[in-house]
Amino acid sequence: MSMDLNSLKEHYLRCVRCGQCRAVCPVFAGIGNETAAPRGKVFLAHMLAAGELKADAEIAHNLSLCLLCRACTRECPSAVPVHKIITAARSLLAREVPNTLQKIIFKEIWSRSSLLNISARLLRGCQNLGLTVLGRSMGMLPPALDLVGKLPRRPARSFISEVTRPEGAPRIKVGYFLGCATNLMFPHVARSTVAVLSLLGCEVITPRELKCCGLPQEENGQMDVAESLARSNFAAFQRLGSKAIVTDCASCFAALKDSSAFKDIEIMDLFQLLNGLLPGHNLKKIDRAITYHDPCHLAKAQGITAAPRELLTRICPGFREMPGANSCCGGGGSFMLYHYNTSMGILDKKISAIKETGAKIVTTSCPSCTMQIRHGLAKQGLPIPVIHPVELLAQTLGIIF
Question: What is the CATH number of domain 282-396?
């Protein structure tokens, strides 16, 4: 989790305003305003911490213009952790100029599984009645609502057991962190993850009391809530004796890896684990061309790029690398909701790269990226599915649901 802004002073003072971060920032590329540049946000954070600027809605807006994709952090020659500084500044702003709606969503609803499930059921009911389509057509609902897509009838939590036994000889016991988006919007991904791990000899532990990973709360300034969620989730895995955890969500993976609450449990990359378990298993190859989008929270935050490609080339001889595969798609969690038009401008570049490959399937391991890319493909009338790599692996292993 991020630190308090004052404790990051030595980091933001290292920023020499060289501007190298501007060359890799997708938001700055779209807006072109200095306040949208990473170095501009670091400067704003510095002024806030020094008391030379008063927290207000305008500063909060400027600091919200960040995907937290970490491209600037990786590029910075002075090793300034820009994403941490921006996150800490957002936390300060959440205290000084609180946004009531954000607080309700991320602190009161998203942090409580029961309320989040109720909210999802209400949205699904509105979708079934056609109310969301009506609201969109009348301009009463934001266009970003389309990104959610049609919610499935049942969340993953309703059919995944707390303990899933391995098929055949057991090889490893692993905890499975079932994230909110996967649970509520992509339950088929969770089903595939658990089934594949079980087939490959894993005992899979999925605690029933799991809550949000805390990343949405952290990114929206609710640091105390994020830390509370992390402690609760750690206790849930500890209760069931989990010594290692995997997740099929790149954002959840980054949140768990960065959290001090999980220092006593190994957070394993799902792709690296699967690559180690696959030798000796027969795979039915996928005969369609596929391409892969690197989620920022996996590639830039954790430096994991080779393992997913190793897996995909195992199962698909027609794997095609897209130009700029590790460039941000513009999703950024809630960014695509707050800044839809800017988000779509960034997305257009990603869709162009996908079209250039001629691929028939796009694959990625982030729910936010999946929603974003799926939305962009649909807007351009491209019938290309966006599928999680673990779903493709389940197909090649002959797993049928």
Answer: 3.40.50
CATH 1.10.1060.10 intervals, the chain: 5-98
CATH topology for 5-98 is Fumarate Reductase Iron-sulfur Protein; Chain B, domain 2 (1.10.1060)
R_g of the chain computed on alpha carbons: 21
Residue 70: CB atoms within 10 A of its CB come to 21
Query: What's the token pair of residue 41?
Result: 């946000």
pLDDT tens per residue across span 305-362: 999 999 999 999 999 999 999 999 999 988 998 899 999 999 999 999 999 999 999 9
Contact indicator for 392, 364 with CB cutoff of 8 Å? no
Outline where 13-110 has alpha helix (H): 26-31, 38-50, 57-64, 71-75, 82-96, 100-102
The structure tokens listed for 232 are 């609760």
- Tell me how many degrees the CA angle 33-36-40 measures, rounded to the nearest 5: 100
Strand order across the 361-363 sheet:
290-292, 361-363, 386-387
Q: What is the pLDDT of residues 118-156, one digit of tens each?
A: 999 999 999 999 999 999 888 888 888 889 989 999 999
For residue 363, what is the enclosing H or E element?
Answer: strand 361-363
